[in-house]
Amino acid sequence: MAKLAFTKSKAFYDQYFRNPNPDKKSTHYCPGCGHGNVHKFIAEALEDFEVVDRSIIISPVGCSVFAYYYFDTGNIQAAHGRAAAVATGIKRTHPHSIVISYQGDGDLAAIGTAELIHAANRGENITIIFINNAIYGMTGGQMAPTTLIGQRTTTTPRGRDVHNEGFPIRVCEMLNSLEAPVYLERVSLHDTKHRAKARMAVRKAIKNQIDGKGFSLVEVLSPCPSGWKMDPVDSIKWIEQEMTKVFPLGVFRDKSKEVESFHFEKPQLPADQITDALGLSQLKVQHFEQSKPEEKYRNPGIKAAGFGGQGILLLGVALAQAGMLEGYQVSWIPSYGPEMRGGTANCHVHISEQPIGSPLVAFPDVLIAMNRPSLERFQNDVKEGGLIIYDSSLIDIEPSRQDVEIMPIPATRMADELGNTRIANMVVLGAYIGYTNALNKETVLATLDTIISRKRLIDINRQAIEKGYEFGYEMKQKASGK
Amino acid sequence: MAKELLKGNYAVVKGAILAGCRNYFGYPITPASEIAEAAAYYMPLVGGTFIQAESEVAAINMLYGAVSGGIRSMTASSSPGISLKQEGISYAAGAELPIVVVDIVRGGPGLGNIAPEQSDYNQIVKGGGHGNYKNIVLAPNSAQEMCDLTMLAFDLAFKYRNPAFILSDGFIGQMMEPVEFPEPRTDFPREDWALYGDAESKKNLISSIYLDPDELEEHNRKLQRKYQEIEENEVRYEEYHLDDAKFVLMGYGIVSRMLRSAVDTLRKEGLKVGMLRPLTLFPFPKKQIKELADRGAAFFVSEMSNGQMVDDVRLATELKVPVYFYGRMGGNVPTTEALIEQIKIYYQKS
Amino acid sequence: MGEKVLDKHITVINPELCKGCGLCIVACPQGVLKFHDKFNSKGYHYAYYVGEGCTGCSVCFYACPEPEAIAVYKKGYVLKENEEVL
Prior knowledge:
The complex is a heterotrimer of chains A (482), B (350) and C (86).
Chain A: E1 5-6, H1 34-48, E2 55-59, E3 74-77, H2 83-93, E4 98-104, H3 105-111, H4 113-122, E5 127-132, H5 162-165, H6 171-175, E6 183-188, H7 192-210, E7 216-221, H8 225-228, H9 232-246, E8 250-254, H10 271-277, E9 301-307, H11 312-325, E10 329-334, E11 344-352, E12 366-369, H12 372-378, E13 387-391, E14 405-409, H13 411-418, H14 424-436, H15 441-446, H16 448-451, H17 458-479
Parallel strand pairs in A: 2-3, 2-4, 4-5, 5-7, 6-7, 9-12, 12-13, 13-14
Antiparallel strand pairs in A: 6-8, 9-11, 10-11
Helix pairs in contact in A: 1-7, 3-4, 11-14, 13-14, 13-17, 14-17
Chain B: E1 3-7, H1 8-18, E2 23-26, H2 33-42, E3 49-52, H3 56-68, E4 73-77, H4 79-94, E5 100-105, H5 121-125, E6 136-138, H6 143-160, E7 164-169, H7 170-174, E8 176-180, E9 205-206, H8 213-233, E10 237-240, E11 247-250, H9 254-268, E12 273-278, E13 280-282, H10 286-294, E14 298-303, H11 309-317, E15 323-327, H12 336-349
Parallel strand pairs in B: 2-3, 2-4, 4-5, 5-7, 6-7, 11-12, 11-14, 14-15
Antiparallel strand pairs in B: 1-8, 6-13, 10-12
Helix pairs in contact in B: 1-2, 1-6, 3-4, 9-12, 10-11
Chain C: E1 4-5, E2 10-13, H1 23-27, E3 33-39, E4 45-49, H2 59-63, E5 70-73, E6 78-79
C-alpha cells in the first residue's frame, strides 16, 4: 500500500531525552546540515525493515557524536575513528544485530582510515554511512581529508595546497580496489532527485546487512553551511557545482545479487563440549610410581643446552612432563635474557618434592650439553657433586671439572644408528634417567604420546630412550664399580 | 583432577574460555603472540570469535564493541602494544566496560627488546590513558595463576564494570608448569547495561561522554567510589614467613618466585625475612604494608624495572621504615643468588 | 467520533521546530512553501505551507533535515483517534 503519511519515524525517540537542551524535539544540527536528512533515511529504513529493536548505531566523534540522542535503537559512542572496529566487535558478538557505523570524513577518512579499510577488507556484515562534507564541522571548520583543492578552512587559510596537504581522498574509489566490499555508492543531497537516490542507497546498504550480504558503504556528499560559511541553499549548489566534480556520484560496486548470504553463528556450548574442545577431558589422572633415586639425584635443577634444532626444549618438556606424572612439582623455562644470545637453545627444568621458587637454574645439579659452546659456557656453573652429561660425538673436548660426575655419551652417533640424528635428545634423556633413576623409564616413555605430535615418530623416540637408558644404566654400574 | 603441563600464555587462553570468554581481538607482538595463536585455535572450537586486528588500536576498539554486547571478551599484547591501546582502555574505563586485557610485559622504552621486564607497572596500575580512572590489576606468578587470575579478572571486571588487567611478563608466559583447570562456566546473567541487539536492551547507551561539568564530575566521583569499594574488598596477596619477619621482601610476578627461594635460603641461615607478594597491584595491599611498617619491619622491593611498585610501597609505609630497592632491567632477571647478596647487605643496615 | 479521512494533500510544518534553512522551499515543485515574515522562538523565519496546491509528493519531507519539522499527509489518509494535522 502506498504510503499516505510522511512523518517522524518510529526509529527516532519521541523526545530526545538525552539532549541536555530543553527543546527535546529538535536536533542539535545547524540549519541546513545534511546529517538530519541522512538520519531520517536511516530511521525510515530501519522502521520499514522492522529491525529497529535489533539495531545498534555507532556514534562517532564529529558533529554526529550525539547521534545517540535521536535513534531509539541500541547506541554506542565510539572513540574518534574507531567506529568500524567497534562495529566489528558488537556485530561479531551479536550477529543478529543490525550495526550501523555512522561516520564523518575526519573520523572515517583521516584518523579512522585503517579501521575502515580493514573492516571493509574483512567484509564485515555491517553498514557504514559516511558523511562527506569536506570539512571538520564539530571542531570549527578545519581541513578534512576530503577538503577540495583550494578550499579555505581554518587550517588551510589560503586554501588547500596540494604541495602541503595533498589531494582529497576518494573513499569509494579506494575501497573499490578491495575484494570483499559488496556495495559501495556515492550519493549527494544537493537536490530532490539526488536525495531520493541517497535514500534508496541507505536502504540498500541496510538491507544488504539484514540479508547477510556483507560490507556496504554509502558515501553521502552532504552540506555543512556553518563550516562552509554559506547559507543552506548556496551549500547544496556548491555540492553540485564543486564537490561532485571531485567526487563523482554513482554505484562503484554492487555484488549484492551475486554473493551468498552469510551469518556468523555463536552457539552456546554445554560445559562438556567446552572441556572437550580445550583438550581437558582427554587429560587422564594417571598414577605413576615415584622413582627412588639416590639422595644426590633428588630434586634436580637441570639445565639442558645445545644448538637450536637438537630438540633441547623438548627434552626438557619430557622431563617436566614425566616429573609431573610422578607427582613431583615441576617447572620448565626456555632460555631467557642474555642466555638467548650466541645461538644456543637451552632450558631450565626443576623436578622437586617441594614447591618451586625460582624456576631458573643458575647453578644446575645436572647439565646436559649437546654442543661444545654449551659445555664451555655452563660447565663451571654446575654445583659441586653435580652431573655433566655431554654428547661426545659432537663435543671434542672434555669437561675441565674434577668435582662433578661426568658422563660422555655419543648420543648423536647412537641416534644416527637408530636411523634419525634428530632423536639424540631422547637418547640423552634416556641416559640421564638410566644413570640417576631420577624418574622411572616407564613414566618418561608415557610422555611421548603427549609431547610428540607426529604419531609415526613415537616409536623411534621410544627406541632412543630405551637405548640411552641402557647406556646410562651401564655407565652408572661402571662408575659404581659394579 | 588431571593436570596439564603447559605454558602460561596457553593457560591464559584456556582459563579465559573456562571463564566464559568468547571473543578475542589481538595483534601479533612478541612475547604475547602465543596468546593470540592459542585463541585463534580454541575460540572457534567453543563458538567464539577470534579476529587478528589490523592494529592494537583496532583490537582494543573491537573489544570495546564486543563487551558493549555484555559478553566476556579479551585482548592481549605486550608493552608497546599496550601503549597503543591506552586510548581504548580509557574509553572503556569511562564507559564502565568490563574489558579484560593481558599485558605480557617486555623491555622498554620504545622498541626496547622482547625480553621480560616489569616496566609497565606505572602505565597499567596508575591508569595509563587520559582521565581519572584505575584498572583492576592482577599479577600472576605461575602458569596456574595465569589461568586462575585470568578467570578472576573476568569476574572482577564484570562485578565492578571496570577494565581488568593481567600484568605478566614474557618469563611467566613462556614458563611451563602443571595447571589444574576448573569446570567451565556457562550460565551468565544478562547484564542490564549491555546491548544484545533486542528490544529489551536497546534503551542502553555505551558512552563516556558527559558534557556538563557537574555531570562529568559526578561520574568521576562515582568511579572513585567504585575504586574505593574495590580497595576495600578485593585486595589479594600472599604472605610467606611474615609472622616474625623484621625484613619484608616484596615483589610481584616472576620476581616473587626468586624472593620465595631467597626467603627459604635466608631463613636457614637464621635471618628473619619474610615475603609479602601482592596478587592485586590495584587494589594494592596498603593496609598490610602499613601494619608491617608499624611493627618496625624494613622493606626490600625487587622489580624488573627502574623501581615503579616501590613508590607505592614507600607511600604505604608512610616513610616510617627504610624501603630498599633492587632492580634489573633490559630483560635481565634477578637471580635468587643476586637477591640474597643484596638482601644481606640491607639486612645488616636495618 | 467517526473516523476522518483527509480529502486533500497537505503539508504541515511545525514552526517551532523549523530552523529556517529554506531547503524545503527551494525543493517544493509547486512553490507552495514560503518563509514566514514572523520569527519562531529560536529566531528563525520559519517555513509555512500556503494552504493550497500541495500534491503530497513528500519532496519537502525528505529535503528537511529535521525529523519532526515537516509532515506530509496524502489524500485518503485516515486520521487516528484524536489526531490532528492542522
